[in-house]
Amino acid sequence: MLRVMLVDDEQMGLEGLRLLIDWQQEGFEICGEYRSASDALAALSVDPPHLIVTDIRMAGMDGIAMMNKAKELGYKGQLIVVSGYSDFDYALQALKLGVAGYLLKPIDAAEANSVLEHVRQKLIISEKLESNAFAEHQRHMTGYLAGRFHNFPKVDHQNSWQLGTWGAPMHYEAVRELVILYPSGMASTHIVDDKEFFLLGWNEEEVSPDLTILENALSRSNRTFVKTNITNAPSELQTQCQLLAEKSTADSAQLISMNDQILSAIATRQREPFIKLCDQLMAYCASAGAKAKTDAKQFFVMGCSRLLANRQEDIAVFLDAQHEDIKTLGLLAIDLLQPPPESISDLAIQYVNAHPQSILTLDTIAVALGYNSTYLGRVFREEQGIGFREWQHNRRIKHAAMLLRTTNRSIQSISDEVGYTQYKRFLSHFKQRYGQTPEQYRRSSRTS
Q: Per residue in 195-221, pLDDT tens?
């Protein structure tokens, strides 16, 4: 789904943008709401959205200045400006800057739908072109690193290059967080055989990129970054790739043997033997040193990835949790390899119904039922068709609607009873589901 950022220095303005447009129906999800241009720009540099919708008049940095600054930072998404009638001449400046759309206050839903349809089509076309170009780059560079040099030019001799690997491939989102540490186009990753390589390329006139942040980020995922400078000579590059792959693989026969036994226990879903073997592996690593522990984790993640290779959703769940220790990961892998129980979501729902006065999270329910919370969340969505949190909001709002129809209690007290700690959030969720405020719903239900 396309991501949209909302910017307005007035809280009412932000709420209007959020509530007056059905973003989900228009194909967007709100990824951030900001009361100042400076806060929006700070978030933009970390994770740029596809679309920014901004008020044109704001205290401090206005919308025009923010748009100019965003372009200076390399923002390539689309922009929509919002203004009142009195600001139209001012808004023309924004249109000259190439914004994709213009909304007039007060926002008209039909007009917003038309503008967003136009923007969505532009984004889809742009994203397709970028995706094709990126896929072509990845295909060529991966082939180059694997030693397939025919029909592909040498690495640009005007560039400096740094090549490294952390061994077993990581989940896409985790790798993406590493790539965006560097300016656009500088970093790319390439999987060759069972190793993931990280390639940095920069013009000789530019400052060499700092690898410290990358290495620190990888260490949090129990990865060690093995690196080497490379040249544009194909034969040397192929040799360097092979040497890196060898350096990133442990040479301990004992470690490999223990890891194979552990993976066998996981494949056959034997919990107790797995736990016993895992304890033995940890004891061995404690005596062999830190590198053995790192190597064991890499072997383990690689092996479990192979077991889950044909199960796209399961492997994504596993790789998202790979910062956990081997024992936790192994038990998660065993859960993922189990056929999903047909009634697991019913068990979760029964638990919620049995504790009507408790504010329950997926984590607390998972602990009570003896499941991994990530696994429970995935199975709940598969069986119920919606995520647990959305199901919980629907349940709470449905109960609130019943209380509004049948009692004279205050809306605040009803909000508290159904489990909302923030009154504004209750109002937002209620209106999203019923198209009315709670007070309007109460009046209409009693006159019908």
A: 788 888 777 666 778 888 888 888 777
Dihedral sign from CA coordinates of 44, 45, 47, 51:
positive
Which CATH number is 54's domain given? Answer: 3.40.50.2300
What does each C-alpha distance from 238 to 128, 141, 152, 196, 200 come to in angstroms?
A: 32, 12, 14, 15, 16
Verify that 66 and 176 share a domain, yes or no.
no
Could you tell me if 317 and 372 lie in one domain?
A: no
Q: How far apart are CA 65 and CA 94, in angstroms?
A: 10
Range of the domain at 218: 146-247
Residue type, 205: E
Considering the domain architecture, whether residues 229 and 260 belong to the same structural domain is answered as no
Residue matched to tokens 């053995």? 292
Q: H/E/C letters for each residue in 111-159?
A: HHHHHHHHHHHHHHHHHHHHHHHHHHHHHHHHHHHCCCCCCCCCCCCCE
CB atoms within 10 A of CB 51: 23
Distance of alpha carbon 154 from alpha carbon 187, whole angstroms: 18
Residue with tokens 């049995």: 354
Q: What is the pTM of this model?
A: 0.36
